Amino acid sequence: MKRRIVCTVAAALLLSGCLLEGAGPLRDPKPFGAQWAQEGVTKEKWLADWVQCGGAANGNYDYEIQKGQPHKEFFEGLNAYTDQLGVCMRNLGYKYLNECDARCR
């Protein structure tokens, strides 16, 4: 009985995140667009280019699901949007980094 209580409390703490508190953020705090890099470009210039290409002013994507929109339609639109954004960024001389490093914004 005591073992069951200990396991239940441990599971509750783990699921609530209390035991993971010191592990740091689970998601990289950098915006999605941060993986588009170009040598010598300031963060301000990168953000201006990102917005010009259709990204949001916070560096993330500017595409949201519409109320009642089917998931299939949303993902088709999202894929088209990200493709267009990527073409635009490449045309401005940016390269996509598969993993963020020091060049990420």
Task: Describe this structure as you would to a colleague.
With 105 residues, the protein is mainly alpha-helical. The chain has a domain at 29-96. It is 44% helix and 4% strand. The chain has helices at 2-16, 43-52, 71-91; strands at residues 36-37, 95-96. Strands 1-2 form a two-stranded antiparallel sheet.
Quick rundown:
Residues 1-23 form the signal peptide. Keywords: Signal. By secondary structure, the protein is mainly alpha-helical.
Key terms for this structure?
105 residues, Lipoprotein, single chain, signal, mainly alpha, 44% helix, 2 strands
Residue fraction in strands: under 5%
Class based on secondary structure composition and strand pairing: mainly alpha
> What's the assembly state of these chains?
single chain
Task: Count every helix, treating DSSP H or I runs of 4 or more residues as helices.
Answer: 3
What topology, given as strand order, has the largest sheet?
A: 1-2
Q: Give the CA-based shape.
A: elongated
Contiguous uncertain segments of 5+ residues: none
Average pLDDT level? 80
End-to-end gap: 53 Å
| Rg (CA only) | 20 Å
Compressed to H and E, one letter per element, the order equals HEHHE
How many strand units? 2
Helix content: 40-55%
Largest sheet: 2 strands, antiparallel
Protein name: Lipoprotein
Organism: Comamonas avium
Keywords: Signal
Signal peptide: 1-23
